[in-house]
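User: Could you go from structure to sequence for me? I need the amino acid at each position, not a summary. Structure tokens:
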């Protein structure tokens, strides 16, 4: 029994001890695993690159090949074909240096960078004042548009709220005059008096204050000749929207009464730095062309604001229901809408018909000659879009 148990112990100990070739195999597997991990770590930036970027690199390589090919003897490039190295000679849009400053999201800073669209916007401007002293740029930023404008209008003024951008602008366009202020708080009527006539406004408006900046200009409509502004495409479409459409609202009514709005052209996100996630449009608001129409309105702008705000707040209701509180007030002249308006909804009414309703409800009044803060509000009250 003792001999057998000893033999059993020897067999079990021999089974637990690894053989030499097993030790070598385990070492080889471990070394291979370490090599694979090191290789994957070194290739991580390439393996994690977006798939669309890889396709873009391949497309760029194909363009290089096409660009470097020259036409065979006796053949000429067809119209529209890629000319040799022409795309390489195109100037690249400027970008904001990383060591300069980072655009602030709180200010919706998106700087216009494409020189083609800058030239297109500047070419649409016209100002007949001496030295362009009535040309006002709102939010010039780092001076992409200002550098072009200042060559034509050396007496122009820029209004900027970001001191970092003002420091950059003082170096890029040393002779330009820039005032630090909020564009929503400027008295454009008084500024027009100081500069000798109605102003010409140009701006790439920040997205978060674009609508309110336009309503501020509406309050100072007699002090503004025209405005060339870049807005979100959705806001621009609201300005020119016609009745019986989803985009028809308060901006449509106000700016079709106070000015002649027109969309000049659209801009893609690639025209900006940093790139926004929306399309934008350049809009011209001609306040001078609508001066006689504004004087003939015959309403207090605050009454018109009260009426349009109320009906478009409940735009799915009929007018007789949405205006019930206003009509029950003792200061109104009527307590019931005319039959032709009672069962209509606000998007079915033309802008001039809102003026007619305001006259019926609040009375006909002389339109103020000087600005009255109706749309922006005396204490910064906002208007619904």
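Assistant: Here is the amino acid at each position, in order:
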């Amino acid at each position: 029994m003792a001999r057998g148990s000893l033999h059993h112990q020897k067999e079990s100990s021999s089974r637990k001890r690894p053989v030499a070739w097993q030790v070598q195999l385990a070492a080889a597997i471990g070394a291979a695993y370490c090599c694979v991990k090191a290789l994957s770590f070194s290739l991580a930036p390439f393996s994690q690159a977006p798939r669309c970027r890889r396709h873009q690199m391949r497309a760029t390589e194909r363009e290089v090949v096409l660009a470097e090919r020259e036409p065979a003897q006796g053949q000429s490039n067809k119209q529209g074909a890629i000319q040799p190295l022409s795309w390489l000679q195109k100037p690249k849009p400027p970008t904001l240096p990383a060591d300069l400053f980072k655009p602030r999201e709180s200010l919706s800073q998106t700087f216009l960078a494409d020189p083609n669209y800058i030239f297109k916007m500047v070419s649409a401007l016209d100002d007949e004042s001496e030295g362009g002293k009535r040309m006002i740029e709102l939010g010039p930023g780092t001076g992409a548009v200002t550098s072009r404008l200042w060559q034509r209008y050396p007496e122009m003024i820029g209004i900027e709220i970001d001191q970092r951008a003002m420091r950059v602008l003082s170096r890029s366009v040393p002779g330009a005059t820039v005032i630090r202020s909020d564009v929503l708080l400027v008295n454009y009527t008084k500024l027009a008096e100081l500069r000798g006539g109605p102003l010409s406004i140009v701006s790439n408006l920040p997205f978060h204050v674009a609508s309110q900046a336009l309503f501020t200009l509406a309050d100072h409509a007699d002090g503004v000749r025209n405005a060339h502004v870049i807005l979100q495409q959705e806001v621009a479409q609201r300005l020119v929207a016609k009745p019986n459409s989803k985009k028809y609202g308060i901006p449509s009514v106000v700016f079709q009464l106070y000015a002649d709005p027109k969309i000049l052209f659209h801009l893609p996100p690639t025209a900006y730095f940093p790139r926004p996630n929306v399309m934008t449009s350049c809009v011209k608001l001609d306040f001078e062309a609508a001066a006689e129409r504004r004087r003939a309105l015959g309403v207090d702008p605050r009454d018109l604001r009260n009426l349009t705000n109320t009906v478009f707040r409940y735009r799915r209701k009929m007018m007789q229901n949405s205006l019930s509180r206003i009509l029950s007030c003792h200061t109104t002249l009527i307590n019931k809408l005319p039959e032709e308006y009672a069962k209509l909804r606000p998007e079915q009414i033309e802008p001039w018909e809102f003026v007619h309703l305001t006259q019926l409800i609040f009375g006909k009044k002389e339109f103020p000659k000087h600005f009255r803060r109706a749309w922006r509000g005396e204490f910064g009250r906002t208007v619904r879009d």
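One structural detail worth keeping in mind: The beta strands are 111-112, 135-138, 157-160, 177-180, 199-204, 224-232, 260-267, 272-273, 280-286.
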